[in-house]
Amino acid sequence: MQINRVNKTNRNFTGLWNNKVLLKTLEKVSDHGTSFSVGTGLAMSLFVRPLVILSTPNVEKENKQYACANSICSALIKFGMVEAVALPIENAVKKIEKNPNKYLTPSTIKNLNENNKALTDSKSFRLASQIIKLSTGFLTAIPKSMLSIALIPIVMDKIFDLKIIPTPKVENSLKKIPPNKEIPFTGKLANELPKKIGKIFDIEVFQNFVKKYRNHDKDISKHITAATDILLTGTSAYQIKKNKKIKENRKKPQIYNNLISTGITLTGGYSLDRLMKNKTSKFIEKFSQINAKDPKLAKYIEGINIIRPAIIFAGIYYGLLPMLSIYLAEKTDKYLLKP
Q1: Which pLDDT score, from 0 to 100, does residue 44 have?
Q2: What does the DSSP assignment read for 162-214?
Q3: Which of 55, 101, 102, 189 holds its CA 20 to 30 A away from the CA of 338?
């Protein structure tokens, strides 16, 4: 009897594949994909990227300091701004997923439910949900870029002790804030936002789009990340060029650095993600077989498809690339300045 019990245990043991911590993590990533991406970028921007930049040989010290300041400002502003927008939207979409009949019209539910089962099992609906949740980074790209560039001189002054701007008086700034004044964020917004988001689901053009591309849901996170990076890079270049508090001879290296970084990241990221997607397909296939009866299987797979490109793009952009991009940016600037 003891032998039979051991054999039965061995047959049912699946280890990592249905580990509760893993499944809960994948579900959370699916619900909060944007938060996971910006959180990964924040950690890499504050620690890994500055260390890589500062250790780059044959690059002027001040150019490295500006690049570090850019990285720190960009990470902090992106995380704060995206989270402020992403969390309410992600929570609103989650409410819609739990109670679609309350927030969506019957025609929308019928149109997006191609398998006539639970709406959350529909590829079209899941793609629509992911597009809405992941688009918050793209929607906040321009204001995030503007604030990041505006903060570079402050970071240069505070961290690297380059006295290029007067230090603002904190006391005067605090006096402008009324005491005990709370930011108006009431339950009304939490209740109204799902209704507003539901109207996006109800747009017929949007429904037709997600139905057409529902089989490409594995790549949506990657494509939105790429579009956001392109928009961020273009906006940053414009803001650096017009910022009067950044030294003129340091502007072009920073612009070149951003352009080179984005170009290499997107090229390498897409290539590596394509390779890794082929490798992870077997993992997903076995994972799906073991967790076939789990009603949240679709969410788990969404989580895997968000984690993979997020880590790949962050690893290239924040870990492997900074040393190469800042070196090439400085060499490019010096070459163009030659008579």
Answers
A1: 83
A2: ---SPPPPHHHHHHTSPTTPPP---HHHHHHHHHHHHHHHT-HHHHHHHHHTG
A3: 55
Q: Are 112 and 128 a contacting pair, CB within 8 Å?
A: yes
pLDDT score for 186? 47
Other residues' Cβ atoms within 10 Å of the Cβ of residue 85: 17
Does 104 or 233 have the greater pLDDT score?
A: 104
119, burial (CB in 10 Å: exposed 0-12, middle 13-18, buried 19+) = buried
| Confidence bin at 177 (pLDDT 50/70/90) | very low
Tokens of 253: 């290296």
Task: Flag whether pLDDT at 176 surpasses 70.
Answer: no
- From CA 323, how far away is CA 260, in angstroms rounded? 11
Q: Is it the case that residue 107 has pLDDT exceeding 60?
A: yes
**Amino acid identity of 83?**
E
Rounded to the nearest 10°, the torsion over CA 12, 16, 21, 26 is -110
Cα angle for residues 274, 298, 17 (degrees, 5° grid): 80
Dist. CA 125–CA 121, nearest whole Å: 8
Which stretches within 32-122 are classed as H helix? 33-43, 49-54, 61-98, 100-103, 106-112
- Residues 211 and 206: their CA atoms lie apart, in Å, by 9
CA distance 311 to 244: 35
Amino acid at 32: H
- The dihedral sign for the CA sequence 206, 207, 212, 214: positive
Show the tokens assigned to 20.
Answer: 């509760």
**C-alpha span between 220 and 160 (Å, rounded):** 39
